Amino acid sequence: MMEEQLLQSSTFIGTANRGYGQQAQEEIIRLFGPPFKFSQLVPNETFRFELPLGKAEATQRLVEQEPMFLRHIQPVDAELDWDGELDSLLEWATSSIKLEAGTLIAVQVRKTEQLATKVSQGEYKQALDLALTKAYATEPVAKGGEFILSLYLTPEKAYIGLSAPEHNLSDWSGGAIRFRKEEGQLSRAKFKLLEAEQVFGLDFSQYKMALDVGAAPGGWTSLLLERGVKVTAIDPAKLDKALLKHPNLTFHQKNASDVKLLADAYELLVCDMSWSPRQMARLIKELLPSLRTGGTAILTVKLMHKKAFQTVRELVGDLSPELSLQKGKQLFHNREELTLFFIKS
Ligand SMILES: C[S@@+](CC[C@H](N)C(=O)[O-])C[C@H]1O[C@@H](n2cnc3c(N)ncnc32)[C@H](O)[C@@H]1O
Questions:
Q1: pLDDT tens sequence across 239-277
Q2: What is the Cα 240 distance to its own chain's centre?
Q3: In terms of residue numbers, what domain contains 162?
Q4: Domain shared by 145 and 198, yes or no
Q5: Which residue in 53, 217, 256, 312 has the most C-beta neighbors within 10 A?
Q6: From atom 8 of ligand 1, which residue's Cα is the shortest distance away?
Q7: Ligand 1 mean position to 255 CA, how many Å?
Q8: At residue 7, does pLDDT exceed 60?
């Protein structure tokens, strides 16, 4: 009986962008229904939660019906009472799990600011990599492993869990996806589109013609040009000079509602304007005849006064039936906004 009850519950640590933990928790409640136990690890950002389902079933639901604001999950297979000492972690990791020789394993360590220890995250990771290699002859990797051993360290507890990378919603530690800043990069905004490409499983090099609405200074346009796409960029503000010479770029330095576009000209429409969402929806609606049936639209949505769900509902309603929502996600590189991926019907 005891065992049965244990099998029917599972514990995770969830992480959202700072200030959006509440929204992530609301989505989890909608998915699983109460009762629940949430406890905050970092206010409105990182939290521990228990679900009345086994680990595999709970993970499957979280992956298949992925919440927009939940950036990352790690399972909690063990909660060690600890004192910041490395030895207790090493002991657990080398005695409580079973790993086959040659398994590629990535160790990801996060710790709260309150954990006053001189050992850095990197040092914990290094020590665990070594210990696992010695105990099981596994192979430590930074990314692309078969498993991730996640550790979340607070002054009182070490939360530890083993999972396949695809079960964590993101294979980056805490979902904090990092891109290298390139020399001469035009805007930080470029990271948003790079992240959207990964998170929505797209490959921009497969598109021939794209429309970038609100393109200046040109981060998104530059990424699409790098992928070999022909881009029509629209913005009353200036695009970076370096882009203007590009043979695959057409630039209209105008307000988007003043530009005449050919029907069915584009397979991809992207828009990163920091406008009120419903105003943006009206503008996008006017431009939609230029997007082919089956085409993709990626839109950044500014979250007004944190009424996130209402904002998304209204916007999706405004854009239907032409656009149908495939996935919405608050990306790591989104600030007070989230990103939506649509297909034109
Ligand atoms: C956040 S920036 C876009 C950054 C861009 N994605 C990048 O990667 O560099 C928003 C842009 O929307 C533009 N914008 C605002 N209203 C617009 C309109 N009616 N038509 C076209 N662009 C507009 C602004 O001029 C501004 O350059």
A1: 999 999 999 999 999 999 999 999 999 999 999 997 899
A2: 28
A3: 1-176
A4: no
A5: 256
A6: 219
A7: 9
A8: no
Question: Which atom of ligand 1 lies at the shortest distance from residue 222's CA?
Answer: 8
114 and 213 belong to one structural domain = no
Dump pLDDT digits (tens) for 123-143: 999 999 999 999 999 999 999
For atom 23 of ligand 1, the residue with the nearest CA is 214
Q: Identify whether the C-beta of residue 330 lies closer than 8 Å to the C-beta of residue 17.
A: yes
Domain tally, the chain: 2
Closest CA to 289 of 266, 316, 318, 312: 266
Could you tell me if the CB of 219 is within 6 A of ligand 1?
yes
Alpha carbon distance 231, 145 (integer Å):
36
Q: Is 220 in the pocket of ligand 1 (CB under 6 A)?
A: yes
- DSSP output for 179-229: -PPPTT---THHHHHHHHHHHTT--GGG-SEEEEES-TT-HHHHHHHHTT-
Distance 216 CA to ligand 1 centre (A): 5
Please state at what angle helix 308-319 crosses helix 277-287, rounded to 10 degrees. 20
CATH number at residue 289: 3.40.50.150
User: Based on the domain organization, do 168 and 226 belong to the same domain?
Assistant: no
* Cα(96) to centroid(ligand 1), Å: 53
Give the single-character DSSP code of 102: T
- Asked if residue 150 and residue 88 are part of one domain, the reply reads yes
| For the CA of 216, the nearest atom of ligand 1 | 27
Does the pLDDT of residue 5 top 60, yes or no? no
